[in-house]
Amino acid sequence: AQTVTQSQPEMSVQEAETVTLSCTYDTSESDYYLFWYKQPPSRQMILVIRQEAYKQQNATENRFSVNFQKAAKSFSLKISDSQLGDAAMYFCAYRSAFNSGAGSYQLTFGKGTKLSVIP
Amino acid sequence: ETGVTQSPTHLIKTRGQQVTLRCSSQSGHNTVSWYQQALGQGPQFIFQYYREEENGRGNFPPRFSGLQFPNYSSELNVNALELDDSALYLCASSLAGRQAGELFFGEGSRLTVL
Q: What is the pLDDT of residues A44-103, one digit of tens each?
């Protein structure tokens, strides 16, 4: 079974600064997807960024980028130019690329990192 | 394009009771999955429905059951409620066939069991 570990329960960052959230995972599979989701107090999980394991290039989405180290099974999220609206719980998630049945989209989540942004 | 909507947003039940939570998937999505998120934890996969059949299940007992309807909306039923069932229940929809499998989540139903 796959596991996802987020070792930082809480982080804080000064507005406009950069912060990196850590995530490690354990899997015996070679093909999979990794995600970072944001959950603000409104509770709705919002996809921040995704990474396909077969791609060596790190994904970027505007101010968000990842450092994907497949051999180390590490998947960190970097938020640049932090904004007050970035304050939220951030969850790292894993999904196998193997479709057991039609469209199996089971995600395995970490416990999350609570990010605070200081004005 | 409508997003994923869930009802009710909050509810309180007592031990032993039964509860039904509802979810309308995002327009055009044919797959729905349910997650349980206990306080301070990440979401845990309960099960997934595709074409009105369960096609994936996490480590949850049979008293957690579900339905998917022809319009792709879904229900999560929990029988014989226990205190540990208190959690946020998240519904997520997706479109089968997209390899990246992006899930779109609703805002959840907060269940408190007393």
A: 899 999 999 988 899 999 999 999 999 999 999 999 999 999 999 999 999 987 765 555
B44, B55, B95: residue with CB nearest A104: B55
Measure the CA–CA gap between A20 and B52, rounded to whole angstroms: 41
Nearest-Cα distance to chain A for B114, in Å, is 22
Please give the full DSSP string across A23-81, using - where no structure is assigned.
-EEE-S-SSEEEEEEEE-TT---EEEEEEETT--SPPEETTEEEEEETTTTEEEEEE-S
- List CB contacts of A80: < 8 A, sequence separation 6 or more: A18, A63, A64, A65
Q: Which residues of B touch A112 (CB under 8 A)?
A: 41-42
**Cis (ω within 30 of 0) for the bond into A41?**
no
Q: Is the dihedral of CA A106, A108, A111, A116 positive or negative?
A: negative
Going from the C-alpha of B6 to that of each of A55, A104, B108, the distances in angstroms are 35, 21, 6
pLDDT per residue over B31-89, tens digit each? 899 999 999 999 999 999 988 999 889 999 999 999 999 988 999 999 999 999 999 99
